[in-house]
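re: that chain from earlier
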Amino acid sequence: MKSKIFSIIFLVFTLISLNGQEYRHHNEISIWPNGAPGSNENNWPWKTYKEEWKTDTSNNKELVIFVTEPTIQVFLPPKEKNTGAAVVICPGGGYNIIVIGKEGYDIAKKLNESGIVAIVLKYRHYSKDAALDDAYRAIQYARSRAKEWNIDTSKIGIGGFSAGGHLALRAAANLTPLASNRPLDGIDRLNRRPDFLMLVYPDTKITQKLELNADMPPVFIIVGAKDGFMPYSVELYNNLYSLKVPAELHIFQNGEHGFAAGTVQCNCSNWFALFRNWLQANKFIK
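^ sequence. v structure.
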């Protein structure tokens, strides 16, 4: 009896301790086992190369900076709820930091509630091209572990918040190979095209520089009306519409930038249900 009580207490303590900063490095997987390509001190814009984490416990702002070796953390829904769909999550931060708490871990847990596998990407934010290489690799890595994680390889999307939304969009709009002299491995040879996009208040000011085309995968976009990026999301939607790319746009009347999983002010926490319905409408989940 005592052993059972101890086991329950231990389980509860473990679940509690995995909130907030305790997700740091929890089950992290290096997506480049031999080191990220081109990640060396000659390419880093900082004097330091040591990764740093910062926490604002009042708002779950778990931040990470100085990322030079990207990783993923996989959040699996209960097996009986798993839909076979997966989303690689790219938190925002203006390519200066990574807001990995509220735009990564929080989102992963909410997606799990809908039976979606969530893969939080900690990418090299010092370079847009390095970040793009990491996004490609995360998609390919998910396909390489699809059987183990109960993922359908034709239902792997990528999503992002703010700058992470820009990164996710690039991963679908610009599939030209990046310059690299590294030898390829088996994962590199897997398909890196995402099957759908989940863009949350994306920073798409530079949409004009992206190579949008009719072969883009379906796109789901949400943004707040009080967000300065809102007009660019509308422009993005119009461009996708003109290309006949399946797309859906939701604008929350009181939403500002950075609402993540939702706030009382924007009344937008139902966006996960909207996203799930959209996935169903596009036959990514039953």
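The chain has one domain: 31-281.
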